[in-house]
Amino acid sequence: MGRVNCLIFTVLVTLSFSRVGHAQFGTGTPVNATPLENGPPPIRDLKGVWTRIRPEGEFYSNSTWTPDPPRVTAWGEEQLANSKNSNAGGFTLAETNDPVLTRCYPPGVPRVYFHPYPFEIVYTDTQMIILYEYDHTIRRVFTDGRDHPEDPIALWLGNSIGHWQNNTTFIVTTVGIDERTWIDRSGYQHSSQLKVTEIFHRIDNLNLEVNITMEDPIALAEPWVAETLYYRLAPAHWELSEISCSGDYLDFSEFENFLEGGEN
Asked: Could you tell me if 234 and 214 are in contact, meaning their C-beta atoms sit under 8 angstroms apart?
């Protein structure tokens, strides 16, 4: 059973990373789905299931934000040197200290965007709620006009507030992000002073772009401005599924044995 679960996980990741110019809508299933038609963007509306796409000629990475590394402080360089990421192949799954892999910690903001699974946006009167398919992660973006707390409690996804800049652009700022999370999958870390700004821009009825800026005076020598992320709206009534960081996913010896063709 362990090898079967590892195989399923490997196939899911392989399929998710194989997108070329079109969307793959995660592991969920459509219910009475009808084809979507493109057109003008709706007014102040981001609801629906979104999945990342890979436009031809645009930067696309599943591990970091820009083609060139960010400028970091001496503290940031020291933290990076202590990171043992397995994403680039420098360390095996048994050697890595990536907290998402070794402890099942939530990826945090903004790293959550690197998980190759869709997210769904829903609304209440006072919040925009983002439901990530990965590990049942729920994020609340408050839209009731509040300010960030002066001394926010550290949370895995931080304290997020948002507002509409215009009818198609929604801006979110997040602070108070737990320091145990990494900024990306390649090992860049952050302090308690990290501030993340996300700009959601609805291009049209089917397409969304997200621009992210990371500021941290302790870890980053200058703001780290990510390359634009692009998303496509899933068919109507698409249902998110479960991707859980648990079980054989964390059994490194078995996982590596399977990848190497060994026996349990």
From this structure: no
What is the DSSP secondary-structure string of 206-264?
A: SEEEEEEEEE-TTTBSS-EEPPPEEEEEPPTTEE---B-S-GGGG-HHHHHHHHTT---
Q: What is the pLDDT along the chain (264 residues), one digit of tens a residue?
A: 333 333 333 333 333 333 333 444 555 655 555 667 899 999 999 999 999 999 999 999 989 999 999 999 999 999 999 999 987 777 888 899 999 988 889 999 999 999 888 999 999 999 999 999 988 889 999 999 999 999 999 999 999 999 999 999 999 999 999 999 999 999 999 999 999 999 999 999 999 999 999 999 999 999 999 999 999 998 877 888 878 776 444 444 443 443 455 444
Nearest residue to 207 (alpha-carbon basis) of 35, 22, 34, 57: 22
Where exactly are the structural domains of the chain?
Answer: 41-244
| DSSP per position, 168-179 | SEEEEEEE-B-T
pTM, whole model, 2 decimals?
A: 0.82
